[in-house]
Amino acid sequence: xxxxxxxxxxxxxxxxxxxxxxxxxxxxxxxxxxxxxxxxxxxxxxxxxxxxxxxxxxxxxxxxxxxxxxxxxxxxxxxxxxxxxxxxxxxxxxxxxxxxxxxxxxxxxxxxxxxxxxxxxxxxxxxxxxxxxxxxxxxxxxxxxxxxxxxxxxxxxxxxxxxxxxxxxxxxxxxxxxxxxxxxxxxxxxxxxxxxxxxxxxxxxxxxxxxxxxxxxxxxxxxxxxxxxxxxxxxxxxxxxxxxxxxxxxxxxxxxxxxxxxxxxxxxxxxxxxxxxxxxxxxxxxxxxxxxxxxxxxxxxxxxxxxxxxxxxxxxxxxxxxxxxxxxxxxxxxxxxxxxxxxxxxxxxxxxxxxxxxxxxxxxxxxxxxxxxxxxxxxxxxxxxxxxxxxxxxxxxxxxxxxxxxxxxxxxxxxxxxxxxxxxxxxxxxxxxxxxxxxxxxxxxxxxxxxxxxxxxxxxxxxxxxxxxxxxxxxxxxxxxxxxxxxxxxxxxxxx
Length: 496
Hints:
Layout: H1 3-18, H2 22-37, E1 39-48, E2 51-59, E3 64-66, E4 78-79, H3 85-91, E5 96-98, H4 110-119, E6 126-132, E7 138-148, E8 154-155, H5 159-201, H6 210-231, H7 240-252, H8 262-265, H9 273-295, H10 301-323, H11 329-339, E9 342-345, E10 348-351, H12 355-361, H13 370-377, H14 379-387, H15 399-404, H16 426-441, H17 453-465, H18 472-481
Antiparallel strand pairs: 1-2, 1-7, 2-3, 2-4, 5-6, 6-7, 7-8, 9-10
Helix pairs in contact: 1-2, 1-5, 2-5, 6-7, 6-16, 9-10, 16-17, 17-18
């Protein structure tokens, strides 16, 4: 073996040991063995379901190359029968070396000859090598055609070269198998993450698809950013690995809600159902006590009717306030006036509403009290704690940090760490925009109906440009991307 061949063989070994993308690995295997053997054409098959599937095909003379970038050639698979030389190599578990296709009596080579008649190609020498792992499992087949000598003339594949290719094919099979194992493990972990995230979302109908929607929207937004950079002749900002890491952070951003009480997550009104029932019953008691007074002659029928109207209006007003998304000043003033009303029950003076009920009803925005909001906000702390117990690979090393920081805002008003400005990574800024947008437009939240997309985008722009809470550049790009548009049934695109 010449020095350049030894050097090339070593280079192939390094390539095979370092590549982790299966599609790129298959391309490199065929490219390298064709270069090493100086052959004109080659095909790499993978064995699946007892059939050999075309994965990479290359023919320099015909200038054809199919199967690059994971695009599988549109050719029917080869059945494991003795009529095909590549299938025969698998069945007999041996390397097949043919010096001249048209003068070979040992094998049925009507297939290559028929191919030549269709394409005008001239198949002469062939080398077919099964790719076997250390355990003897056949992974696929390398089929090489027309070795070339130093003058460029077709010559047979040598026995020495066949031995070298057997060693390379074995190494390639092991690498393919390892890459498959790694991919299977990654897919298993990703599936587990999606299932776990979906299970947490499914704890409440008010959050059933939040993480999935965000993850899908995130993927489309990152693809938009990459395409935009490529159009400008720039390097895409998110590699496949970077993209996977960020999308996984989105899937896991709410994992801490696994311990958030449902009575907090599902709280559709300011008062709990029990509190609301007690208050409405008390308002009813006000009228009933006055009715007793009327029956016993202590008040007139007109006075009773006035009380009936007053309690009825109060009950309706309380119901409206209880389910409102935001309370203006006049509603707070009405509650303050209601707080001062009392009635006499069995000789004791009682308030229409208790201090606790007043405190809950006077929540300005949303349905949660400060104590309940603290419980809700603690989900990011729990997210960080839970994710700290997962041993993420180097490629996913930022998932914990990005997921746990998705409620941080640029002006320092976020939580839990009050991070601000440059202390908040770009990836966290993206997750925050996605999270706020989905919360605004979602129609499955307990405290409000879904907001129209234009209004939600306006709120994002206000938070970015006027309040300094969101990244202005990323917010503008998010608006331009229209990545929320899915066209899926059940989730309107809501085009502007």
